[in-house]
Specification:
The chain has 542 residues and is α/β, with parallel strands linked by helices. The protein folds into two domains: 38-44 and 82-245 and 323-460 and 472-507, no CATH class; 66-72 and 249-321, no CATH class. It contains 16 helices and 14 strands. The longest helix is centred in the middle third of the chain and has 26 residues, at 292-317. The relative contact order is 0.21.
């Protein structure tokens, strides 16, 4: 029997959540998850990032054509180190991500449906379960697979993604759900995969990692301790002016004015400086080309030349701050942008997402985390959760659409600390949409998902790898019929650190490098190569 109860007033998107059953917020993490603070954007810059000139390495004048070196990219100037850009969304507080959002099923995959009681626990009344008749849908059900990964057709995250993406972008996207428990309302979930993505090779032209807090992980949840790389630790920035201030080419950036000719003049000065300092160096020359000394001299000479090439690249590419400014990117904001000027000006989360995606998709940063606060929304009716999930979907969709406009691949990972459940109370407000209200935290319903965009075609699911059919590659692990995670369904189902390893394994597989996982993470807990094949969703895309 359905219990009809007057729904609470929907909280505003930036209005904090107050729980009588929770302790008063005291830590920064508490304030973010309950929406008292938003999660600012954070960028991390490696040391010695902008050294313009390296010490001379040869007694002879520069040999060879430096412009030819740049054309051949002999110094490996490649955005993101040639890796797929990676962005994760950390929804702080324990959001609903599956059942009412991404579909989650039993052992047979997303379409191996749960019981009506199981979907009720995940917030859906009987007439809105995925396979219920729905005359308003062309498929006569509540299933939408526009992005490859199946969503509930009325899911708030899906609605937000659809709003911000073109049909062509949707058609070149696919994804996978991961059934995995995590603790509620704690900063101790080692959810953040950023350091592992860095270890897998993701590096930017200017930055290492991007995150949303000045913490060891750069996000709300912590990173697995075994993966932390101290020199890649994020530092904080929360506005576009901080992004534009990341690159300073000194007086050379403005000495000759602006425009293409001014940039070329600055580069010419760099080359002249390089030749003069090179001519004054005093490295000995060795007649034996095979000697260790000669090899070392050649290596130093190449390092020296690359110092010029990379400095010239910075001067040419970032001669003005506008090159990094998301506010001035017409693909992001304006009449033809992903966001209108009015909504961009009005929403901090849109501006933060824009800064992250600008840096990561273009390869200026290796990977990034967007933390969004206020997802501890149980007890606030269904309407509050729907509005906040919808905004998250708009931000996720914006990242996908920006990657499409820049013709770049992208992997997006979405997670939250814990989850929640419903108990049959209907929210019939316009924003509640006739779904059940969220009433309490429940870590047994937790899960996460990831999406992959490819500029060429929809990423292809593996079929038969690890003895697993394609439909089970789209859902890693599974839920019990009663709407809770089956903790024995895969190694990461009841261990968040292994969930992170699963995400990184899937990132490496997009490059065809999953066979290197054992070497990079020798202490991993994902089992044999055959078992890891069963935990991998997609064939390579780059």
């Amino acid at each position: 029997m359905l219990i009809r109860k007057k729904a609470p007033r929907a909280l505003g998107l930036n209005e904090p959540i107050r729980h009588g059953s929770h302790k008063r917020p005291v830590s920064r993490r508490d304030f973010i998850s309950q929406g008292f603070l938003t999660g600012p954007a954070v960028l991390a810059a490696p040391s010695a990032l902008l050294g313009l000139l390296m010490r001379p390495g040869s007694a002879q004048a520069l040999s060879g054509d430096l412009d030819a070196m740049r054309a051949l990219n002999q110094c490996n100037i490649t955005g993101g180190a040639g890796k797929v850009p990676f962005i994760c969304f950390d929804l702080a507080g324990g959001a609903n991500l599956t059942g009412s959002e991404v579909l989650i099923g039993n052992q047979g995959g997303q379409m191996d449906f749960l019981t009506t009681a199981g979907y009720s626990k995940l917030g859906l009344p009987g007439d809105m379960v995925p396979n219920a008749p729905n005359a308003a849908s062309p498929t006569n059900n509540f299933i939408n697979a526009a992005f490859g990964l199946a969503f509930h057709s009325d899911g708030a995250i899906l609605r937000g993604m659809l709003e911000r993406t073109a049909p062509a972008t949707q058609a070149r996207t696919n994804g996978a759900a991961i059934a995995a428990r995590s603790e509620n309302d704690t900063s101790n979930n080692p959810h953040n995969p950023m350091y592992g993505i860095f270890k897998a090779g993701a590096k930017g032209e200017l930055l290492t990692l991007i995150g949303s807090r000045s913490s060891d992980s750069g996000g709300n949840s912590i990173a697995p301790m075994s993966m932390i790389v101290p020199e890649a630790r994020p530092t904080k920035v929360d506005r576009s002016s901080d992004v534009t201030g990341l690159v300073d080419t000194g007086e050379l950036g403005t000495l000759f004015g602006t425009g293409p000719q001014a940039s070329q003049d600055a580069i010419a000065v760099l080359e002249a400086m390089t030749r003069v300092s090179h001519s004054k160096s005093n490295l000995p020359s060795f007649t034996d080309a095979l000697s260790a000394q000669q090899a070392r001299r050649d290596a130093l000479q190449m390092q020296y030349k690359c110092g010029y090439v990379k400095s010239a690249y910075l001067a040419e590419t970032f001669s003005t701050p506008a090159a990094l400014n998301p506010d001035l990117d017409t693909d992001i904001v304006g009449a033809g942008g992903i966001f209108t000027q009015a909504e961009y000006n009005a929403d901090d989360e849109f501006r933060k997402t824009a800064a992250i995606m600008k840096m990561v998709v273009n390869g200026y940063a290796g990977a990034g985390t967007v933390t969004m606060g206020g997802y501890d929304y149980h007890g606030q009716g269904r309407n509050t959760g729907e509005l906040r999930n919808f905004r998250a979907g708009r931000c996720i969709g914006a990242c996908l659409e920006y990657a499409a406009r820049k013709n770049k691949p992208l992997m997006i990972y979405v997670f939250s600390d814990g989850s929640l459940n419903a108990n049959g109370q209907v929210d019939n407000t316009a924003d509640g949409r006739g779904k059940f209200m969220w009433v309490s935290d429940n870590q047994s319903t937790a899960s996460s998902f990831f999406l992959v965009f490819s500029p060429t075609a929809r990423p292809v699911l593996l079929d038969g790898a690890g003895g697993v059919a394609a439909v089970r590659h789209q859902q890693i692990g599974y839920f019990r019929a009663d709407g809770s995670v089956e903790t024995a369904s895969h190694p990461g189902a009841n261990a968040v650190n292994l969930l992170v390893e699963t995400v990184i394994l899937n990132y490496m597989a997009l490059h065809g490098e999953q066979n290197q996982f054992q070497t990079i993470f020798p202490q991993h807990g994902l089992g044999s190569a055959t078992m890891r094949d069963g935990l991998t969703a997609f064939d390579r895309i780059v």
